[in-house]
Amino acid sequence: MRIVVLVSGTGSNLQAVIDAVRAGELDVEIAAVGADREGTYGIERSDEAGIETFVVNFNSFPTRAEWDAALADKVASYRPDVVVSSGFMRIVSAEFIARFGGRYLNTHPALLPAFPGAHGVRDALDYGVKVTGCTVHWADAGVDTGPIIAQEALAVADSEDEDSLHERIKVIERRLLIDVLRRLAAGEVPAPA
Ligand code: GAR
Fold first, then answer.
1. Which ligand 1 atom minimizes the distance to the CA of 166?
2. What is the average pLDDT value for the chain, to the nearest integer?
3. Domains (ranges, CATH) in the chain?
């Protein structure tokens, strides 16, 4: 199974996928890693790992539609079976997703449909929930929406801050993402509707 991974930031979840592939624990080929802006640590990590990388800079295009089409062309050039949004903080179009047969995977650090968006951990903490978690799902063109594949919950500790909670969530999120990729590669995950 060939995957293209899209990142916007540090790419620590991507690193876990790279490590699992290298350790022979996950039988997927990371065809390329792409970002929506220059200078991300996610791209730097991938370069260091000898993986092909690309940037389709959101700010270099006059319209979102042109950026979206350019990103789709670039991703398609690697012929992925699955595209993974791993901390990719941009919404792509329905046309983008359709081009990859709907096989656009996303992870989110909250129990969707609760607390979608760029600040899922902060929003959950601000609400005062006692349980939160993470979600791996087939993404559609909404903000963190689409059919859920896997979720896991964890209890929020008293007086926990956003960073510590996010780090605890990411530990689970990495395991869940790798497990879903493994099941996908084995043909055990239903295709998106
Ligand atoms: C992850 O927790 C991911 O779920 C979240 O960004 C983080 C990226 O971390 N994505 C979203 O919030 C999407 N709405 P990383 O760059 O260290 O892998």
1. 2
2. 97
3. 2-185 (3.40.50.170)
Ligand 1 neighbourhood includes 9 CB (under 6 angstroms):
yes
- For 61-75, give one letter per residue: b (16+ CB within 10 A) or e: eeeeeebbbebbeeb
- Tell me, yes or no, if 108 is annotated catalytic: yes
CA dist 5 to 13, 114, 121, 132, Å? 10, 24, 22, 25
Residue-wise pLDDT for 99-151, tens only, equals: 999 999 999 999 999 999 999 999 999 999 999 999 999 999 999 999 999 99
pLDDT given for residue 193 in this prediction: 75
Instruction: Pull the structure tokens for residue 86.
Output: 């791993």
Q: How far is the CA of 76 from the centre of ligand 1 (A)?
A: 23
In angstroms, the Cα distances linking 87 to 80, 124, 127, 136, 190 are 18, 18, 22, 12, 23
Tens-digit pLDDT profile for residues 165-180: 999 999 999 999 999 9
Query: 59 a known binding residue?
Result: no
What does the angle CA 9 – CA 130 – CA 123 come to, to the nearest 5 degrees?
Answer: 40
**Ligand 1: which of 17, 84, 86 to mutate, judged by most atoms within 8 Å of the beta carbon?**
86
43 is annotated as contributing to ligand binding: no
For residue 87, report the distance from its CA to the centre of ligand 1, in Å.
4
Structure confidence by residue, pLDDT tens digits, 62-72: 999 999 999 99
